[in-house]
């Protein structure tokens, strides 16, 4: 261990795990195995890293804070299965670490300020990922695992469930961290589907229609989708235009996206 005392930085979302019981429970949920390709986002001072390395898995870590690099190196540089990448996980090309489809296992006690964009970034690589285990703010996990009909059901739930099976594993209180965050946390498991259960003709159209629908979640679909789909198109997708977006399940959003794909040129990027 280095003598250097690292002061947690708020702007990097640093809340370090110190509760060995919680660390152990997370490691048991991940169940890393020798030879697997693991990626840890935000290793911090190595609370989870140590157990991940002990499994014999091949571990790549991605850490943004330059000050943590020497601490991590002093603890783990001697381990042949430890590989460090200094940089921003939001910009990191995870494809460079993959060894074919569904080869990567991604884990992390994520910085809460970037967790949603990071999950969207990882979804771009969903076909390369076997599973993901994340510590997130509990409310975010509830949105990820939400079902249609409630206030938690929204763009994050739909786009993540399009690509992944979601399991809310267990909750973690603020006392497990130093410094303690002001919010409750939870561990979630995301398992990318081999084939999406409701495949869209063009997933970009799903993103467009879901964004538009939840832009004003209190309004009816006929209103929120006005710029994208006519009332006739909505009906042709088998969707009642007087419903509000939170009442629609994933399959219905995919049908709307497929209507949109019929009229949108394939190279549309908006
Ligand atoms: N894994 C450690 C633990 O459980 O104690 C640290 C978790 S702490 C909540 C989040 C970590 O992510 C910090 O080490 C922070 O420096 C790092 N981090 C923040 N933003 C990042 C980014 N954009 N890319 C990579 N790492 C980042």
From TrEMBL:
The protein's annotated catalytic reaction(s) are: adenosine(1518)/adenosine(1519) in 16S rRNA + 4 S-adenosyl-L-methionine = N(6)-dimethyladenosine(1518)/N(6)-dimethyladenosine(1519) in 16S rRNA + 4 S-adenosyl-L-homocysteine + 4 H(+)
Q: Which GO terms describe its cellular component?
A: cytosol
Q: Which InterPro entries match?
A: KsgA/Erm, rRNA_Ade_diMease-like_C, rRNA_Ade_Mease_Trfase_CS, rRNA_Ade_methylase_Trfase_N, rRNA_adenine_dimethylase, SAM-dependent_MTases_sf
Swiss-Prot/TrEMBL keywords: Cytoplasm, Methyltransferase, RNA-binding, rRNA processing, S-adenosyl-L-methionine, Transferase
Keyword match Ribonucleoprotein: no
Give the signal peptide, or none: none
> Which PROSITE patterns does this entry report, sorted A to Z?
RRNA_A_DIMETH (PS01131), SAM_RNA_A_N6_MT (PS51689)
Which residue range or ranges hold the Ribosomal RNA adenine methylase transferase N-terminal domain? 22-194
From the UniProt record, which GO molecular function terms apply? 16S rRNA (adenine(1518)-N(6)/adenine(1519)-N(6))-dimethyltransferase activity; RNA binding
Q: What is its EC number?
A: 2.1.1.182
Subcellular localization is given as:
Cytoplasm
What does the entry list as the binding residues for S-adenosyl-L-methionine? 15, 17, 42, 63, 88, 109
Function summary? Specifically dimethylates two adjacent adenosines (A1518 and A1519) in the loop of a conserved hairpin near the 3'-end of 16S rRNA in the 30S particle. May play a critical role in biogenesis of 30S subunits.
Protein family per UniProt: Belongs to the class I-like SAM-binding methyltransferase superfamily. rRNA adenine N(6)-methyltransferase family. RsmA subfamily.
Q: What is this protein called?
A: Ribosomal RNA small subunit methyltransferase A
Look up and give the organism this protein is from: Pseudomonas flexibilis
Q: Which gene encodes it?
A: rsmA
